[in-house]
Structures are given as structure tokens and as C-alpha cells.
Amino acid sequence: LLGDIPLTIAQYVDVRGEFDPEIFADAGAATARELGTGMLRIFEVDGHPRQVIDHGLEDRATILDLRDEDDPEAAAIAWMRAEYRTPLDMLEDRLIVCAVLRIADDRHFVYTRIHHIALDGYGATTFDTRTAERYSAAVQHREPARFDVSPLPEIVEDEQRYRDSARFVSDRDYWADR
Q1: What's the gap between Cα 167 and its chain centre?
Q2: By C-alpha distance, which of 27, 33, 17 is closest to 63?
Q3: Per-block mean pLDDT, blocks of 10 residues, the chain (178 long)
Q4: For the whole model, what pTM was predicted?
Q5: Which residues on adjacent β-strands are paired with residue 43?
Q6: Cα distances (angstroms) measured from residue 89 to each of 11, 59, 94, 174
């Protein structure tokens, strides 16, 4: 139906002023591991999709320095557009991509592209907010605040408990009748 159009959420944040891409990459990696969604991989078993949190995946943002380009901002935008338009193989490619594009000494674009199967808009915002919290804590040399969102493994366990319950059966029967 959609051909090669990826079902992704993509955005960039224009960060101006003092910013440390390495600390940000560490914060994003920690968030990816904490939530689990940043390490999500899809695979098939007997033709059926399955998901796993793969802690072996590279978890740090790519850092690209574009300051030597003739027009660093245009080069960054072109890079992001090309990355966003690249077809994804859900069984092979990363479902979440993050890059920090340095376009001036005091200006960076923080780009994220997230396949909708891994996160929806709310989940992406939660991921970004937690990464920002971790970054702020790191540059202020303090621990990040406690995080009250359930990580992916906990959500999957809750779903499995529901599917194994009598309530699931009665809910299924109720809605099948409707």
C-alpha cells in the first residue's frame, strides 16, 4: 500500500549554545537501555513476528561534524531528509536512529527517526524527554530524577499476564459477540 514509505516519526531539535554531543550520546544510550525500546529488534519465527530487546545493538547516537561544509545547515537538512526517506527493513535495520549534526561551534541539530512499530508519538516524546533529563543531570554532575514510566520488558510481561488470564477470555468473547 505505501511502498517504500517508512512508517516513522522523525524530527530534529535545533540546539543553540553550549552543548556536548558526547554527553548527549551517553544520555541517549542510557535511555535506550533503560526503556528497552531503543534496543528493540523484530525477527520472525515460523513466519510470525517476535520482538526482543537486543543489548548487543549499538546504542549511541551518531555524531557528524558538518562545520566544514559550504552550507552546514543545508548539508544537515539534506542528510536528515535522505536518512528519513531511506526504506527500512524491520528485520535488519535499527528501529530507532539518533544523530547529532554539528553545524557550528554553538549550534547542533539533534535528529531522531523512530519506526512506529517501536514507539508512537507519545512514546517518542517520553524517550526524548528522558534523554534530555539524563543530559541535564550529567552536565550538572548529579543523578537523573527517578523515572516513573514502565520499561518495555515490564509492559510485555503485563500484557502476557493479561493474555493468560480469565479476563482476556471474557473480554475476547464479549467483543467477538459485538
Answers
A1: 32
A2: 27
A3: 67 96 94 84 89 83 97 98 88 90 98 87 87 96 88 80 90 90
A4: 0.80
A5: 50
A6: 20, 18, 9, 37
